[in-house]
């Protein structure tokens, strides 16, 4: 996955000097896209890194975090059992540290033929909130399965969420309407907060802002993989476009906290 980061990683990191004055909506207290379960994907590699991420997000006002480790047939062959084992390890560590925050887990599923096959067969997937199913595509090539994935997910009772649509390079050549089409098919859209700071690329920043301008954003996630991402998130939270996004009817607020057993 390192080559993907080199291709679509920190290319711009441009500074947006427009800072917010007054919040346009309630703060986001639930992060529904993060990679802090230790050692199972390209996020946190040990419990120390997991706790560093969780403590930072907690200090920013987050009260609920949903881990979404990658599930990819060629790279990260995570199963519900693997994810739940890592989740319990993190929950135990959080409790021992005395951090007052709810920790849950779902997954970020890569749209490939294996995923589609499992979807057709009615396999159960890990979801968050109101049966939201987080899915991502290739950053480079158009996904030939996306229409079927959206249709099948809905028909199986899921609510499909397309992760970080602003980062898909194949939509940059005057193809913004493709993202809008996904929403018209019934998918929800989640942008990454760091996109608003130009962390990934100027194109990702431009698309994230346009999605906000046109009211297409349903979720905002941190997509935190490393503690260093939190430094950028602090900056993002002061930007005018982040403030503008808070004025949207974000579904982050609907992911209710529930008592942990």
TrEMBL record:
Q: Which reaction does it catalyse?
A: O-phospho-L-tyrosyl-[protein] + H2O = L-tyrosyl-[protein] + phosphate
Q: Which InterPro entries does the record associate with it?
A: Caps_polysacc_synth_CpsB/CapC, Pol/histidinol_Pase-like
Task: Supply the EC number(s).
Answer: 3.1.3.48
The identity of this protein, by name, is protein-tyrosine-phosphatase
Record keywords: Hydrolase included?
A: yes
Write out the GO MF terms: manganese ion binding; protein tyrosine phosphatase activity
Its family remark reads: Belongs to the metallo-dependent hydrolases superfamily. CpsB/CapC family.
Keywords in alphabetical order: Hydrolase
Query: Do you know which Pfam families this protein is assigned to?
Result: CpsB_CapC
Organism in which the protein naturally occurs: Flammeovirga yaeyamensis
């Amino acid at each position: 996955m390192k080559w993907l980061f080199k291709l679509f990683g920190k290319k711009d990191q441009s500074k947006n000097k427009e800072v917010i004055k007054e919040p346009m909506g309630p703060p986001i207290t639930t992060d529904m896209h993060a990679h802090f379960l230790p050692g199972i994907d390209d996020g946190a590699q040990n419990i120390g890194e997991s706790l560093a991420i969780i403590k930072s997000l907690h200090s920013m006002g987050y009260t609920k975090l949903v881990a979404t480790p990658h599930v990819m047939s060629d790279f990260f062959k995570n199963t519900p059992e693997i994810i739940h084992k890592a989740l319990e390890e993190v929950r135990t560590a959080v409790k021992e540290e005395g951090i007052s925050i709810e920790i849950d887990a779902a997954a970020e599923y890569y749209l490939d033929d294996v995923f589609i096959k499992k979807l057709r067969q009615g396999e159960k997937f890990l979801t968050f909130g109101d049966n939201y199913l987080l899915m991502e595509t290739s950053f480079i090539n158009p996904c030939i399965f996306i229409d079927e994935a959206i249709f099948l997910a809905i028909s199986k009772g899921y609510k499909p969420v397309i992760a970080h649509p602003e980062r898909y390079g194949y939509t940059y050549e005057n193809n913004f309407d493709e993202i809008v089409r996904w929403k018209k098919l019934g998918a929800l859209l989640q942008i990454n907060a760091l996109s608003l700071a130009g962390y990934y690329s100027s194109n990702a920043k431009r698309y994230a802002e346009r999605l906000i301008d046109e009211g297409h954003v349903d979720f905002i996630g941190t997509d935190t993989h490393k503690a260093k991402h939190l430094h950028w998130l602090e900056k993002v939270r002061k930007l005018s476009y982040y403030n503008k996004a808070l004025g949207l009817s974000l579904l982050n607020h609907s992911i209710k906290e529930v008592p942990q057993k």
